[in-house]
Amino acid sequence: MDLYGKDLICTQEWSMDELWAVLDLAAKMKRDRFSPRWRNILQGRTFLMFFYNPSVRTRISFETAATELGGHAQFLEPRAMRLKTEKTAGETVEDAAKVMSRYAAGLGIRILEDKIPRYGAGDELIREYARWADIPVINMADDKFHPCQGLADVMGWMEWLGKGVGKPLDPEAIRGKKLLITWGHGALARSWCSVQEALLIGSRFGMHVTLAYPEGYDLDPEVIEQVKANCEANGTTFEIVHDPVSGYEGAHVVYSRHWMSPQAYRDGVFHKEEEIEKAMRYPEWICDEEKMARTANAIFTHPMPVDRGHEATDAVASGPRSCIYDVAENRLHVQKAIMALTMGNL
Amino acid sequence: MDLYGKDLICTQEWSMDELWAVLDLAAKMKRDRFSPRWRNILQGRTFLMFFYNPSVRTRISFETAATELGGHAQFLEPRAMRLKTEKTAGETVEDAAKVMSRYAAGLGIRILEDKIPRYGAGDELIREYARWADIPVINMADDKFHPCQGLADVMGWMEWLGKGVGKPLDPEAIRGKKLLITWGHGALARSWCSVQEALLIGSRFGMHVTLAYPEGYDLDPEVIEQVKANCEANGTTFEIVHDPVSGYEGAHVVYSRHWMSPQAYRDGVFHKEEEIEKAMRYPEWICDEEKMARTANAIFTHPMPVDRGHEATDAVASGPRSCIYDVAENRLHVQKAIMALTMGNL
Amino acid sequence: MDLYGKDLICTQEWSMDELWAVLDLAAKMKRDRFSPRWRNILQGRTFLMFFYNPSVRTRISFETAATELGGHAQFLEPRAMRLKTEKTAGETVEDAAKVMSRYAAGLGIRILEDKIPRYGAGDELIREYARWADIPVINMADDKFHPCQGLADVMGWMEWLGKGVGKPLDPEAIRGKKLLITWGHGALARSWCSVQEALLIGSRFGMHVTLAYPEGYDLDPEVIEQVKANCEANGTTFEIVHDPVSGYEGAHVVYSRHWMSPQAYRDGVFHKEEEIEKAMRYPEWICDEEKMARTANAIFTHPMPVDRGHEATDAVASGPRSCIYDVAENRLHVQKAIMALTMGNL
């Protein structure tokens, strides 16, 4: 297996062996974070980070990852780029990507719903960069997928349900376990990318999947079809429920997060305030201790930032079974591993 | 003494031995700036800089300091962070600080008056981060204190009144000397942090202190009480005068700087234009050669940027007894020393 | 020859030997990009980049250059600086430049037409910084000149007309060849800096120069006088034509780019929309295959970003004789060489 030069846009597009290579290296890097083994992997190399949408956590974790590999990540906000659009003169993605390939070892892109006219357009833009770039393109979250978050999620779950945090990872620790991904109410009108990626990677690693949300909050039908196919291939179950409680029964991993409805985009506009107003009508959709008591001593997971009091109570988010800080830390380790493998010739 | 992991929010909270350890190391680092001894102290390590208020000088000096220690400082503007407030959903400081502690070796924060609803709120926010962070939190200037500036100030004074710039530091060079901190008129409505920190650290190092300002420009009464206590403990004098001339008599160090009045904050609003208009009514409050002639051949000091023509004349600010560029340079050296000691396990 | 500490504001101000030293080193660095020979030239050193005007390409290429030399470039937007102006209080350029000289190994500045009240004011500001700074000041593009682009241009032309890309450079490859610099229509109201620098450096390296543009699009008369003088000194020809076709006859290098008219600035205002509207009236001013067929198998060059469909057709810009990506890459190599020679004591 040789991952050098490979793009990472969605985990579904990588083989299980390739995903495992990332997780295995991430676990080694976590155990021995500042080892001389990793210190010069990207020595003198540049990783470009294009933030169409700002994100403090994603930016810190990627920039720290590059630093720990001996390289340097540049934080770029493309508002400063004059890209060609249907309405305005400017540079084509082809030209931008080809020039960047001359300077950098890799390119990360983040683009979410409020910077695009319709669902899917962010993912398409990343693929357009990947088409022309000679260097690996890493999806740092788009409107559909968030592969680095998905890898950090399963790494955390394997640690908590397996040998412990920082210990060797065992994929068997989550195989056959029940993953509940449940909608939470909230005031942030969030993207689908994190939950869709978690559904995909969880089902591929052999978890039973329950998806819970109020009527009217369907996710991308194509992604759901893929999750079903993953479950079928693994002989596991997939179900969708529309009440806030039943999905918790017997769950091993509980993932409670708000997401916007499919009506959020209409006529090329992102109706953020309307989404928030609508979502706040479902206060019973919160992960609390009472619901957690129905699980098989489940861990609570979340890609952060947690909207406390809406998506989960403080008692759960800060409770003894919350793995949120470990998952957040894992973003660093999986991203180091991805960069080392795709850009570092490791 | 082991400073590893220690926060620095105000110099008053560090012992004299601890402050001296910083100054002593800073002087060594200044003499041998690019020595291999310091080059890898923060190798692969990340220092996060949160600039609620932008500042070119503070940013350059901290980022340069991290680079010279082999690490990397990330420049972050928290407008991109969705922090929870009384009015808006978002992440708690607890969650933000705990996650950052997983990624970084240290966290610097700068927050001044125009980003907060009342005096003191900036310092409180830094202390809230420090409460939850497992990594050292460094105050890069808040509405009350500016410890790195205070350390750079006394380092410069010791050089100029002692063995010379870049030479070994001698705390006796300033002990028993007279420090005049005088208000200057001006058009910038400046924070109290630099002058309050200078009052605190100057008095702790055994200087006689004279504070001069027009009626109506009182500083924080709690800080003034602490300065008086420092003077009492050292057997030195502390006085406040309200005329622009008399304080210069016999002074060894003259520090002329504008600061806003206690009326600058009312009803959660920072009345900047009103402050500027009021301050410009006192043109006699300027440090000029005539006033400097009354001193004991005093040096002129200022944390920069100097508002020339208001706080001091060009003849003084660019004169042979101006130590302003050396003090500015010392920001770099003291910050390298602070980072090495609190984050670098030195 | 010792370039340590030297400013680079326009290539015209450097001797041919000095320019050749840059190009020769750039070619070596290109051949062996991550050699240990260059890796530590700026170890622990800081290069400050002041972007009055943002630019993704210039920022990436300079920041990457610093990283590849082992140093660090800080991306600064001076809106955060409180500089003194005729109307506002703030810091003088003298104070800013003197303090930066204490922290950094070099200072790059970019300032274009929309940040200044009149043509020439950007170049003057850079020279004001250079006057007070003790460290080398590098022009990263101002309203008059763009020396790094000019060096990257001739490096690319020498590669394509000489021994090939990445091969040893031969200045004889362009001597006596015909350079056509032609105006293109377009919707971006572009600065004069790149074309003026190309005229200057092309003529100094012994090229025959043809400048083509519609009546009303004169460039800076002082620059044109200098270009004529360069041609005279080299015994080459210089001509200006006002039709979009004739200049192509026998050309070896074709440089098609839009630039604004001398009327763009009036009354301290940059009339951008008016310029664009006017420029779009000349659709025949485009570099296409038909015109290129009149040349002596010329290469197509452009400093990028290309305004495709206005300045050049896709067939030309992406054609087999387009050297645009190689020229863009050369920005990195010449900037590494400039930094190594002026800041790195090489």
Provide a short characterization of the protein structure.
The structure is a homotrimer of 346-residue chains. Chain A is α/β, with parallel strands linked by helices and 346 residues long.
What report would you give on this structure?
The structure is a homotrimer of 346-residue chains. Chain A has 346 residues and is α/β, with parallel strands linked by helices. Chain A folds into two domains: 11-144 and 329-343, Rossmann fold; 149-327, Rossmann fold, CATH 3.40.50. Helices cover 38% and strands 13% of the residues of chain A. In chain A, helix 3 (56-68) links the parallel strand 1 (46-51) and strand 2 (72-76). In chain A, helix 4 (93-103) packs across helix 5 (121-132). Chain A is globular. The A-B interface holds A 34, 39, 54-57, 59-61, 63-64, 67-68, 70, 72, 75, 186-188, 304-308, 310, 317-318, 324-325, 328-329, 332 and B 43-46, 48, 71-72, 74-76, 78-82, 84, 88-92, 94-96, 98-100, 102-104.
CATH architecture of the largest domain in chain A: 3-Layer(aba) Sandwich
Structural class of chain A: alpha/beta
Largest interface: A-B, 32 and 30 residues
**H/E series of chain A:** HHEHEHEHEHEHEHEEEEHHEHH
Task: Provide the spatial order of strands within the biggest beta sheet of chain A.
Answer: 7-6-5-8-11
Give the averaged pLDDT of chain A, no decimals: 95
And the CATH topology of the largest domain in chain A? Rossmann fold
CATH secondary-structure class of the largest domain in chain A: Alpha Beta
- Quaternary organization: homotrimer
- CATH superfamily of the largest domain in chain A, called what? Aspartate/ornithine carbamoyltransferase
How many alpha or pi helices of chain A? Answer: 12
Radius of gyration of chain A from CA coordinates: 20 Å
Secondary structure tally: strands of chain A? 11
Overall 3D geometry of chain A? globular
Main beta-sheet annotation of chain A: 5 strands, parallel
Residues in β-strands, percent of chain A: 5-15%
